[in-house]
Each structure stands twice: as C-alpha cells, then as structure tokens.
Amino acid sequence: MATFTTTINISAADVKILKDQGYSLYGFKSVAATGDGSPTVWFNLPTEKLLGKTKITWEEEFQAYNSTTTIAPKTKIEASNTIATDLGQLVTIEKGSGNIESSTDGYDGAVSFLNKDTQQFTVGINQLVNGKSNILCAFPILGAGSSRVITPITKIALIFSTEQIVTATVITKAMSAGAFINLTGVTSRETSYSIDSGWDAGGGTWLKSFDAFTDLKKLLIENTSRDEKALSDKNK
After folding, report:
1. Residue 43 pLDDT greater than 70, yes or no
2. φ and ψ at 15, to 5 degrees?
3. Quick one: pLDDT at residue 231?
C-alpha cells in the first residue's frame, strides 16, 4: 500500500499571519469518472495545526459509500452506508434495501458501482488522509442496473481559506487561490507557500496555481466513459 506525502514550507512570519487571520488548509482529491460529479472537501487542517513545515499524508486505502443526499454546492454528503473496498472491486447497491456490498468484479485501478435498486443514489469514495478516511467526491447514480466507475488520481488541490467548511461538503468553486499538485509517478512533493507570492515549486511543472472562483469540477474531475457503459451492458 503506497503512502503519499506533500510538505508545505511556510515562513514563521507567514504562519503567524495565517493563524492570526483564522486561515485553515483545505484539501481536495482528483478522480476520473463520467457524469455530473462534484469534489468534496477531503480534509481540513485547522488553524492551530498549521506549521512552518506542514505535512499532508495519505494512503491507498479506500472506502465506498452510498447516500440519499442530493448533490448541491455547500451541501454536506451524509453517507447512508460505508464499506471497505479497494481498486478493482465492484460495489453493488442491493435491490430493495439500498445496502452495499463489495466484490472483486470491478475494473482495474478503479472502484466500480452498480445500482440494482430502483431509486437514485449519490455514490463516491473515501480515502485515508492524515489518519482518517474522508469522502472526496460525489456522483449521482440512477437505479435499475446503472453504473459508475471512479478512478482515483494522484493529484490534489490545496487552498488556504478563512471559510469554515466541514469535510464531505460539496465545493464547486475555489474559496480562494490554491495549488493543483500532480504526484503521478512519485510518492512525495515539497512546495512553499507565501501569503504575498502564493505557491512555489522551485520551477517544477507539477504544480499549477489557480485563482479564487476556479471551477473545481473541471480542475479535479477527469472525464471517462467506456468502463461504465461496459459495466451497465454486462448486467442487463
């Protein structure tokens, strides 16, 4: 099981300003899937935990959930059921009960969902970050054999903000300027942050800065379709 880290270097003076002004660090995780899905707050590092060398650690340990919460901006997704799963597994929503079970019939590198019930749900995955498994995305799934295939991607977005937002909350527009960090092919990145000049990767192209109000759905959700169609066709 791979472990990933991102370290943020901040001067002591800037840490003090961030704390004095009530900033927290928010994190989001990228996925590939189809449909009108949305990112959710994956983690929130509160003001008192900001350090000169702030480290974020996550692992390839996953859970899947289904929910009756309707996806809408600034709405917290409340999971109805949560189950341990892994890449390559299929999470089936049972007909009649809406309960979920996980099997090994999914697609490699992804968590697949199959809804055999006769109602629509919201589905998504949790991933372990800073020792806690939190929801990182939310996608609608129709009933009667519809499917969703969600592939976690090793890209994250980080935002300092004074807004108070709990994890699992749907966020579609960036609350403030942030950094989009690509960890494809590596397990760690180290970056710097300044309250005046923003994010810096020492010239590395793996970090892209973005502005407040950036569309996080476009930034974080990459579009795929082939596997979902195949999964639905297989179960007709």
Report:
1. yes
2. -60, -45
3. 53
The residues, ordered by sequence, that sit 6+ positions from 114 with a Cβ below 8 Å of its Cβ are 90, 91, 92, 93, 145, 146, 147, 231, 232, 235
Average pLDDT, the chain: 93
Tell me the residue type at 68: T
Region of residue 226 (left: phi > 0; alpha: psi -120 to 50; beta: else): alpha
Name the β-bridge partners of 27: 43, 158
pTM: 0.91
Instruction: For residue 39, give the 3-state DSSP assignment.
Output: strand
**Can you tell me the mean pLDDT for 127-145?**
95
Other C-beta atoms closer than 10 Å to the C-beta of 25 total 22
Q: Which residues contact 185 (CB under 8 A, 6 or more apart)?
A: none
How distant, in Å, are the alpha carbons of 45, 51, 198 from that of 48? 8, 8, 20
Instruction: Locate the domains of the chain by residue range.
Output: 3-234
Alpha helix positions (H), the chain: 12-20, 216-220, 226-234
pLDDT tens, residue by residue, 137-157: 999 999 989 999 999 999 999
